[in-house]
Automatic annotation (TrEMBL), chains A, B:
The keyword Transcription regulation applies. Keywords: DNA-binding, Transcription, Transcription regulation. The keyword Transmembrane helix does not apply. This is ScbR family autoregulator-binding transcription factor. Residues 31-50 bind DNA. Residues 8-68 form the HTH tetR-type domain.
Length: 223, 223
């Protein structure tokens, strides 16, 4: 392993350690010393990679953002209807948020009012939902009597609700809850000819896309 | 005004002041001295009514809980279908959360992981949704092909999402968003004969019930 590879690996490990500490204590109560202790490195080693707590939080947000975009674009590559893509992306985001502490901490940091976050998950997700509903409308796959605005409000509201209730420890942002949500919503939103081909539980692209995105930030390893 | 009435009024004023401080700074960062300064009373006067910060938080939660129950039972008295009652209660809760700082702070304190809260809004709301859907099923007003569990998940998810996004400063927990949500959902959930009589924007009972509940905790007044 070259020096550069070791540096990149250490940086990723520090980002994951920081995410674990940020998730547990929140941005404000986290000290850089907590992160270095948790990562098992000296404060000097941590400082070599990240000059401040804000720089570390920015790096966590950036890593989370990359994972989310990578996952969304993996799903988007498959040639299915826009409504199925939307369903699949919601499932893949739920999987990422469940399994990847960096994604969870990045999204949580983005809600923080103390600093100026670089990732606004809620805004980006809302834009993504809007774009996909525009595409669904262009495809002619939205039922005549539904308003795109109402669908956006409902999809963003419900998914952000599942996310907020996940923090309370409940079983909310799960494949099962999301499947129930889409099972209820899709027959109202999609035109009858499309409906039969839609899978509220997600298509194979969800399962296919996830393994690669889960590895964008490697697990913490001993130094 | 008797001594007892003055005492009650002061207690209500302190609860409102505490709610304002808790909402702004969160439970953990709030000190009793902040509340007494904000209320314009001495720390001794505050201590006469509330022995600790936890007692003050409990009082805010209890007042919020009373307001929410009072509002829900006002709506429940009107002889409309269970689905309309559910729609109306969601609107009245949104109004309360928008207008009453004690309700907002009480609900927020209930999400706090630092102490053991007495109000769990999310749990109580979920129970309320479940009960009303059981009633709707008993009335025969639920469409055959929807699962009550999916409706509960979607209603609780979306409304809790609107609530969590309200904290980010967006226009989410509003009459407009909720009306859009119900406009989308009710045609999927209700049987066709009932649908024509349902008002996604809420019935007159929403407007009728709110003024009385808004006054359960009086505005802060000078001592």
């Amino acid at each position: 392993m070259t020096k550069q590879e070791r540096g990149t690996r250490t940086r990723h490990m520090l980002i994951r350690s920081a995410a674990e500490v940020f998730e547990q204590h929140g941005y404000e109560r986290t000290r850089l010393a907590d992160v270095s202790a948790h990562a098992g490195v000296s404060t000097g080693a941590l400082h070599f990679h990240f000059k401040s707590k804000a720089a570390l939080a920015d790096a966590v947000e950036s890593a989370a953002s990359r994972s989310l975009h990578h996952a969304a674009s993996s799903v988007g590559r498959h040639p299915v209807s826009a409504l199925q893509t939307l369903t699949d992306i919601s499932h893949i985001f739920a999987l990422l948020l469940d399994r990847d502490v960096v994604v969870r901490a990045g999204v949580q940091l983005g809600c923080d009012t103390v600093r100026d976050p670089t990732l606004n998950f809620h805004r980006e997700w809302q834009d993504c939902v809007r774009r996909l509903l525009d595409r669904a409308a262009a495809e002619g796959s939205l039922a005549d009597d539904v308003s795109q605005q109402d669908v956006t409000t409902t999809v963003v509201g419900a998914t952000m609700g599942f996310l907020s209730m996940r923090r309370e420890g409940g079983e909310w942002l799960t494949h099962r809850s999301l499947t129930g949500f889409w099972r209820l919503l899709l027959p109202r939103v999609a035109t009858p000819p499309l409906l039969g081909s839609l899978a509220p539980e997600g298509t194979r692209s969800v399962a296919g896309a996830f393994p690669s995105t889960a590895r964008t930030v490697p697990e913490r390893q001993p130094q």
